[in-house]
Amino acid sequence: MMQFLLPAVCSTFKGVSPSVFAERWGDPKIGRARMELDGCIASEINEQLNEAHNKAKSKEGIADGAKGAVARREQRRALLRGD
Predict the structure, then answer these.
(1) Which among 13, 14, 60, 67 is least buried, having the fewest CB atoms inside 10 angstroms?
(2) Tally of structural domains, the chain
């Protein structure tokens, strides 16, 4: 099971090498529980990323993003002017 879960978890937790997860999951007493927990966390992170990506693709997400960008630009301009 580890060989199927490891690539997905490693791609979610950037900067953590596969050997770290292999050591973490290799414990005979709690290794499986750790593996299941890491898998659930990786799944939740990926779901949230997909939701954010889909929201950004929709017109509402683009409009909200544009409004936010304009607001940040105006805020920077105000700081530079000293308002």
Answers:
(1) 14
(2) 1
